[in-house]
Write the structure tokens for this entry.
Amino acid sequence: MCGIVAYVGNKPCQSLLLEGLKRLEYRGYDSAGIAVIQDGKLNICKSVGRVANLEDKLESIGNFSGKIGLCHTRWATHGGVTDANAHPHVDDRNGIAIIHNGIIENYAALKTYLEEKGHVFRSQTDTEVLAMLIGELYCPAEGIDLEKAVQAALREVTGAYAIAVICEHEPDTLVVARKGSPLIVGIGADEYIVASDAAAIVAHTTRAITLDDYNVVKITTAGFRTSTIHDVPVTPRIEQLELELQEIELGGFSHFMQKEIHEQPKALRNCLRGRTDVRDGRVILGGLGDHAKELTKLRHVVLTAQGTALHAAMIGEYMIEDLAKIPAIAEYASEFRYRNPIIEDGTVVIAVSQSGETADTLAALIEAKERGALSLGVINSVGSSISRLTDAGVYLRVGPEIGVASTKAFTGQVAVLTLITLFLARRRYMSADTCAEYLKALETVPDKIDQILTQNDRIRRVTEKYVDRENWLFLGRGYNYPTALEGALKLKEISYIHAEGMPAAEMKHGPIALINEGMPAVFLANRGRQYEKVMSNIQEVRARGGHVIAVATEGDEEIKRYAHDVLYVPDIPEPLSPMLTVVPLQLMAYHAAVLRGHDVDKPRNLAKSVTVE
Ligand code: G6P
């Protein structure tokens, strides 16, 4: 949603802060701002738009040279996209500046209280309320310094936050805190870099403190102190950040999304490494080991997620029922949470999330746990809020995903859900031989994606033919119904073309009315149980003038008679096919966005990690 970077150390920090902010820009990019204390005075600069706009503005007003500061890139929740609403926010009395990621749920009540105390607000944000509250409580004469004022303010707050705070009167002190939103404190030589994620830190240090909810850290160049919001000292957990710098750089690609599509073979090899034992027909998932017994007895699986992760979860639902023979359902986390779900003995809830921070998914998980479910995570981001909350889990290991449109995380999620399915299936009805067959096929996925990627230029040419059409359909059945949803989502989120995905059969029940001359309809028409039925649906579209783009199995010559354009994927057992069929759809969406001149990695109105419900 928002990206945070803060610094205290022995060197001028503006360029380090802005460089970090650019690495976090994928988290939010509608406005940006910076505050630096210089010669005992707070200097602030904010700008609507990208970090580059902020840089230009700083250039024109004169760059800041202070050695303590903080900066923020915003994705608006409270209040429109204006300079006034951009962070940092300041209080009106003590020269306190704050940046914030998250949401203060009781901000309206706090604002009324503070207005009664005479504070005058300049923005519509919940964050300004927090700045004023800290300012109201700040009273060094009574021993309430910045650290204590932050603790006291956070005791009054409900909601989620990762914050960094500085104050003119304590020009060497940075105070940071978190609850529900991510925050890491990097420990360098005589300097500390605080950020929403490791991407803004690893260029400087790989030693870092990871914070738990309600932790507050007071940092000066002399050292740091970790406590809770109730001022109970906490022993800091110092960890090594795993991220490599090259993983978060473009490395010759034009966009992160393009890089991440092309990284899929390597990412999936990493994901599968050490987890498949073809010889004995078994899956090795250390993360589930402690719960193997409970998993043998489980009776019902709920998979919960949002966005692309939900589409992966839906494929998981199909696989778990089809191969492991356990009733399963995939649900929007936002719906699951509020519909009073029934969790019976033997229910496992699997939260699927790239970031591990999606507020809806986190809330659904908490709900499920409170109702007694065993919880598993299928998460990419190590140490994220969801991964810490689940009872057990399997990390994707596909590397950081920076493009807002999720690609390699999707194939990684499907691969991990395949492994979990086979793990469960082997504890029930599946023979070692059958499992070995699936594992062998799973191991071919990376090479097969490599083959699909060689068709990149042809996929671009096909996309070019249809790129000016404003309405597209994506249709599939069975395992490739969720792939159709994912193809439509990819296209709409980055190219702003209206696209709908649906089960191919559902088309006849309404959407067929939309089909007119030349309307593109993308069919997932690979070989599988419902191939013949998909062929009938293709003909229904053609008969009404639609243009059919089919994703088909290599060697299927017949389909050329029905489709205007065919994109081939290698053959693979049907449950594994979405990991292949999605790749041409990812490339089509990518090329459509580039051809239309859009900013692929920062599509309008979207954020990579949605930390508000
Ligand atoms: C946002 C992103 C999507 C992502 C969804 C779920 O909407 O733009 O790409 O699929 O959140 O994110 P998660 O991190 O939970 O997988």
Notes: The mean pLDDT is 95. Residues 445-601 form a domain with the Rossmann fold fold (CATH 3.40.50.10490). The pocket of 6-O-phosphono-alpha-D-glucopyranose is lined by residues 306-309, 353-355, 358, 361, 404-406, 606, 608-610 (CB under 6 Å). The first strand starts at residue 3 and ends at 9.
